[in-house]
Amino acid sequence: xxxxxxxxxxxxxxxxxxxxxxxxxxxxxxxxxxxxxxxxxxxxxxxxxxxxxxxxxxxxxxxxxxxxxxxxxxxxxxxxxxxxxxxxxxxxxxxxxxxxxxxxxxxxxxxxxxxxxxxxxxxxxxxxxxxxxxxxxxxxxxxxxxxxxxxxxxxxxxxxxxxxxxxxxxxxxxxxxxxxxxxxxxxxxxxxxxxxxxx
Length: 199
Fold this sequence. Notes:
Layout: E1 8-10, E2 19-21, E3 36-39, E4 45-50, E5 54-59, E6 66-71, H1 73-77, H2 80-92, E7 100-103, H3 142-152, E8 160-162, H4 177-180, E9 187-192
Parallel strand pairs: 1-4, 2-3, 7-8
Antiparallel strand pairs: 3-6, 4-9, 5-6, 5-7
């Protein structure tokens, strides 16, 4: 990505929706526990690690602000994607309709069976009824949930790109905690600002 490995920001992810702002010089990993990292400094690259959770990368081409988001079911229930958009807007003056989102490989609705008790954790989201399959063994669609949240935060639908590849279904390509347990590795998604602008 054209930056020194020491400029790769690695969050201490805790399955939440807290935001940290990465600035130069930045320790790697960040000392702050967070699941959303933001910056407009092109000298840094933000990263997120996942092994079934949803990695989301956000970029605003106007201001150069970027974000890396870790959104498992807990982060999704807490509105991590929405918090990331709001953070880019409030800190850097980014406009949601200009932002582009890339939603990477994660466990898909085909394989993410959850308990019925989990449904109540999403009750604050008006679209949540469509995120769970209507069956005796509900499945959660994290792809749709995060797409809906990004759209609710103001992103244009044509700027939300979901790769829709299930980590559980492709053992030759992806790590999956649900499939492999503690032996699972981690996927890494990273993003860097294209503009050298620290606000």
